[in-house]
Specification:
single chain, about 90 residues, mainly alpha, Methane Monooxygenase Hydroxylase, Chain G, domain 1, 3 helices
């Protein structure tokens, strides 16, 4: 347990950030999982509609430093590459 008042405050802040981070992580994972299902099913139209939400989730995560900017960029690139393979 924290002893000093600043440690108590840091713990409270950490608990609040944890909620936001878990929400970000689950959003990204859900979107990517759904996208991968659509790619396997070769449903290009539905996968195409999911792209903006994936981009939005990744950009928000990078903006808040939940993931690095290059990680977001790499993931977006791989999503588009997977979509282009669906001809």
């Amino acid at each position: 347990m924290p002893i000093t008042s600043s440690a108590h405050k840091a713990l409270r802040a950490s608990d609040k950030k944890r909620v936001f981070n878990l929400r970000r992580k689950s959003t990204i994972e859900k979107q990517l999982k759904e996208f991968r299902k659509l790619v396997v099913a070769k449903n290009k139209a539905a996968a195409q509609k999911l792209i903006p939400t994936i981009y939005q989730a990744l950009d928000k995560a990078a903006k808040t430093h939940f993931i690095k900017a290059n990680t977001a960029s790499r993931t977006k690139s791989r999503v588009m590459a997977a979509l282009k393979k669906l001809v």
